[in-house]
Amino acid sequence: MWSWRIMDRAPRDGRWIIAINRREPDRRAVIRWDPRSSSDSEPWRVASCDHGYASDAFTDWMPFPPWPAQGEHADASQSEILAALGGETVPNGL
Description:
mainly beta, 7% helix, disordered C terminus
C-alpha cells in the first residue's frame, strides 16, 4: 500500500512524484524538483505546465507505483478496476 510522506523527504533528483498542494488539498499534482532551479524561489515543476512552485507549496508526496507486469491486468473485471480506483467511476464518453 502506498502512503503519503512529508515533503521534507521528497526526492530532489528530478524524478516525478505525486504531491498534495497546500492551497488546494483536494487536488493532486505530478511534480519534480528541477535541479537547475534549486537556487530559484520556485524549484518544483509541474508536469502539466512549465510553472514553478515554491519549496513549501506542497504538503505531502508519494512515489508512483511500479508498472504492472505485461498483461498482469489485461483480464481485470469491472469490479477489480473500480476497486483499484477507490470506487470512483468515470462518466461514459470520457
